Amino acid sequence: MNKRELLYGTGALALLAGGAALLGGRGTSPANASEGSFEITRSDDEWRAILSSAQYSVLREEATERPFTSPLNNEKRAGIFHCAGCDLAVYSSETKYDSGTGWPSFWEALPNAVGTKEDNSLFMRRTECHCRRCGGHFGHIFDDGPPPTGKRHCINGLALTFKPAEA
Question: Domain containing 120: what range?
């Protein structure tokens, strides 16, 4: 093997590794999850019929909304945030805080509300969180949140609906 072959071979391996890193954690989106993976499953057409195109993009294709665009970012009333896909109660307003990131942030989910998986996209390792009942993508969980958990659930507002507490 000469230097040129070694250089080309190394370059090809680097490209393959970079492509794998970009796709890592994204191989199975919630919309393509195997049948029976979640309590609520729908076809793409069924999801498109009940979600706006922006909600579909976030919940079913793991997109991220632009920061500071969600009305839920400024929601201060007492109540419960629900999955926009299946209406599961997922976050209490009592755990919401202003992280300054531009997305609704919570230091804890309600019990048995979210599932997680490793997300190795964008050349970093993150923890993705999704609805445990329908698999809809919510956002990511980071270790830079406030006490008592030290967690920051950085959530797309499009993935949630808000129901105020009854007075």
Answer: 3-164
